[in-house]
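Look over this entry.
=====
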Amino acid sequence: MQEETSSDVQNVDELMQRITEVFDTLPRQLKSVATYIEQHRSNVMMDRTSDIAAACGVHPSAVVRFAQRFGFSGFSDLQAVFKQAYTGQSGSPQSYQQRIRKLIDEKAGNVSGVSVAREFIAASRTGLDELAAGLDDEQFEAAVKMLQQAENIYVIGVRRSFAVASYIVYALQHTKKRVHLVSGFGGMYREQIRSVRKGDVVIAISFAPYGKETQYCVRAAQHHGAKTLVITDSQLSPLARHASAHLFVKEGSAFAFRSLTSTICLCQALFIALAYRLELTVEESKETGGYDD
């Protein structure tokens, strides 16, 4: 396969777009490197080749090959793109993880509950800051419009994402939309999603390693002509690449536990924006003589 000749990459977003376009064709080891880089963008400028290789379970030469695959002479050239983008920024997820690990090492057995709480709150705050900075205005507006026009809204989220799916169903039921939680109770994901059709929207909430049940529901929706709104953590997510609209959120984590703060916040914002849009539509209809006109 011919290599990319993309040494003219100007910024991180352009690089990630090119990675996304060819991700499915990359060898397994290079896919691991791509996923790491996408998930740890703000840390790549500080990472050594050996650090990334160890995190991905590959040989350091694979990291170099990855850079060369996209037209760079070596990893340092690729790293320069991230340095340009992230120099001067602070509070990356990794820096919090390092602080937490240092806290554990220094105070093994003596960490108070309050210390744990404050670290977790700080990590959640970092996640919210990243959500605000990275929110895609165009995709968010597209998501609101899709939900506004939907005949039925199906929501799927498993395991950690189930709490978020349940919440957004609760919120959306305050509108006049027909809303369905694909709970999978009794293992009946297939039965609960099979009535989806054109004109409907499926909201799929999933984070690495991406629930197989959620992936099935997204495929079913697409097969039946329904639109899909994916809330996930990476543009390399198997759910995001074929979604009608996607919203990315990366949670802060502390003590190996990821927060749900940013995801809940995003879903609340989505609901409020939709409710506002629906109310405006009702008011406009009243002003023009009501629903019978």
Remarks:
- The CA atoms of residues 193 and 220 lie 7 Å apart.
